[in-house]
Amino acid sequence: MDASQTPPELTDRKNAIRTAMRARLAALTDEQRVSGSAAACAKLIECEAFQRASTVMLYMPMRSEIDVISVALEAFRLGMTVCVPRVETGRKSMHAIETSTFDDESMGADELGVRTPTTGAQIPHESIELVVVPGVAFDARGFRLGRGGGYYDRYLARLSRHTATIGLCFDFQFVDTIPTEQTDIAVHSIVSDRRRIDTQPNHSTAPPKEPL
């Protein structure tokens, strides 16, 4: 469902959560953001879904989001294929673009102004074994509140059932309940700077990689 088709009452509830959460995110000090990001990323790296993946989709962090640079560096060290999103607003779609660095020199901006590689192959969604998903807020069921464009929900809906999805956030970004629509897609796990919640513990992931 596009934002224009969302019932006004549901839109109001979502926007109220966004407004409150953005205020809390804006109030974070640089020190809190750095320490929270480090703690959340360390927990993510420990996840079996990360350790078993050979191709992982991260995101290019905005200032209000967990900085995933340490996850990217570990993925590069382990020889994983790393990709990040690039959106096409005209088609309301999002693609995964391979990158071998997060350096500013190799990055441009997509149509929403989010950093994205200036070059790099498009990675088929069926090849991705783990997608790390940002959000403005999450609930314990795995539902997330994004920025309102619906790009992640449309992308997640296309993934293989073997692809693991992990939401990444600061712990205060958990709320009791995210107002949902039929098109909203829950993630399999959520990792914060303080805990990990497996929202779909019986999710079937791809078999482990063969030893080299």
Compact description:
The protein contains five helices and twelve strands. By secondary structure, it is an alpha/beta fold.
SSE blueprint:
Blueprint: H1 8-26, H2 30-46, H3 48-52, E1 55-57, H4 69-77, E2 81-88, E3 93-98, E4 107-109, E5 115-117, E6 122-123, E7 130-133, E8 137-138, E9 144-145, H5 151-156, E10 164-168, E11 189-191, E12 196-198
Structure description:
The chain has a single domain, classed as NagB/RpiA/CoA transferase-like (Rossmann fold, 3-Layer(aba) Sandwich), CATH 3.40.50. The protein contains five helices and twelve strands. The protein has helices at residues 8-26, 30-46, 48-52, 69-77, 151-156; strands at 55-57, 81-88, 93-98, 107-109, 115-117, 122-123, 130-133, 137-138, 144-145, 164-168, 189-191, 196-198. Helix 4 (69-77) links the parallel strand 1 (55-57) and strand 2. The longest helix has 19 residues, at 8-26.
